Amino acid sequence: METKDSNGNLLQDGDSVHLTKDLKIKGMSKTLKRGEAIRNIRLTGDPQEVECRIGKAQVVLKTQFLKKA
Q: What Cα–Cα distance (Å) separates residue 64 from each residue in 28, 29, 36, 56?
């Protein structure tokens, strides 16, 4: 399975990505802002999702809101 970002670029474990949209995360008081950099992503079994760590929280993000840095 190939995991691609919103522009069609292939994503791999350890890549850095930028958000293309403000995201309200369930269970967190923090809103992730557009353009925020997220480092060291991990691929999941689903090609439309990636895992990452934001602060101390483990978060799963949809690839449609990510752009490879």
A: 21, 22, 15, 23
Residues of the chain with pLDDT under 50: none
Best CA proximity match to 67, nearest among 45, 46, 41: 41
Residue 63 phi, psi dihedral angles, 5° rounding: -70, -20
CATH architecture of 17-68: Roll (2.30)
Contact in structure between 43 and 54 (CB atoms under 8 Å) = no
Residue type (1 letter), 27: G
What residues have CB less than 8 Å from 29, skipping those under 6 apart? none
pTM of the complete model: 0.90
Burial category of 14 from C-beta neighbours within 10 Å (exposed 0-12, middle 13-18, buried 19 and up)? exposed
Q: How far apart are CA 26 and CA 7, in angstroms?
A: 25
